[in-house]
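Hi Y.,

Following your request, here is the sequence exactly as I used it, all 208 residues.
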Amino acid sequence: MKGSWLRMAEVFLHRLRIRRADWRRTTLWVLDLETGGLDPRTDPILSVGMVPIREGAIALGDAYYSLVASDRPIDESSLRIHHILPGDLEVAPSPADVLAEVRRRVEGGVLVVHQWSVDVPFLAHGFRALGHEPPVFAVIDTVELLRRYARRQGLVNMERTQFSTALTDAREWFGLPPHRSHEALSDAVATAELFLVLAHRLGARRLG
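Below is the corresponding structure, written out as tokens. Let me know if you'd prefer a different format.
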């Protein structure tokens, strides 16, 4: 119990410190996970895509992408959706190796995702399944930024935005070009571009 309280305090203090930081002077890691379903307890992570934003620009040269080996049965239709061939996963790195790379990037930093309720639980479950606590990081959800933008612009009806917050639809709303959806690195870059547009439209200076 004491350990859990210390963990909660560590996370709270980190998020409080991060909220005061200038986002342009902070490295943000934009992450996308492609998974074999929506339940982190039973469905595997199939691939991980990450790209950093540094000094307000996307650093494509430091992007990270990896498939993830799985010992669970995977529906072939799911593989097709995510542009993965069945044989690819047989030679992919282990979850432990991939999550070690994720930890190296995000520990003590800021994670940007599109729809945190999918990516973050899968990430947390992945670490715990290996016997590790998830790394400490703050999370920015571009879906929440979209909702904040909609409220400021009066684009909300009955608490719902007048435009879709799905990644492809939201990008189209802001005039961003089509991208290859359901591919981890492509979606990570697409999320990074959307974040930069929203940060500009919201006049954001600090991560809070």
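The chain has a mean pLDDT of 91.

Thanks again,
Q.
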